[in-house]
Amino acid sequence: MAMTNNQNECVTCNKRKRTYSCEGCSKRFCFNDLTEHKQILNDELFHIINDYNQFKQIFNEQKPTSHDLSLIDQINQWRRNSIDKIRQKANHCIEIIVKSSQTFLNDIEMKFNDLNEQIKQFHNENEYNEIDLEYLRNKLIKIKEELINPSTTFIQPDSQSFINEISVISLEKKPKWDKWEQNAITVA
């Protein structure tokens, strides 16, 4: 029975023996050197796993940086300033409405008191006619209408904001890879 010669030179010991090909580096090793080559690859994988675990621990312990905290403080200050501006504007508008309403009521009261004095005067002097009564009636109707239908007050939105808007711009670097690629490692 004839035996075929399956012997090649081992890349590590340089002896002609039965060899096995490593699919990663495409080199041929004898059984003993292939075992040692595999152990080297295992050691490298262990180092990568160890580096990964150390980085993972550092990553998990990350807290906001002082720069992040400074940005958050700036946003909170903007919020407080904006709320203060809104509160001041609202108080100012309320003050205008209250003053306007009070002025309106004072004006009606003054007209009403004036009418009351005229009515008393006509009654006390007992000198009045149809024209005077029509005048008093019309004046009373006019005061009632003013009270029932006051001048229109409304809120008009302003198209110009008095609060400066802010935005957060992040210049983060995004990874250029988005899928895993397996590359061979050559060990010498």
Overview of this protein structure:
With 188 residues, the protein is mainly alpha-helical. Among the domains are: 20-62; 87-148. The chain has 3 helices and 3 strands, in the order βββααα. It has a 3-stranded antiparallel beta sheet. Strand 1 and strand 2 (16-21) form a beta hairpin. Helix 2 (66-125) packs antiparallel against helix 3. The chain is rod-shaped and about 150 Å long. The protein starts with 6 loop residues before the first strand and ends in a 40-residue tail after the last helix. This is B box-type domain-containing protein.
Helix-residue proportion: 55-70%
Distance between the termini: 39 Å
Strand content: 5-15%
- Major sheet, described briefly? 3 strands, antiparallel
**What integer is the average pLDDT?**
87
> Would you count the extended β strands for me?
3
Uncertain runs are none
Tally of alpha and pi helices? 3
Structural class: mainly alpha
Protein name: B box-type domain-containing protein
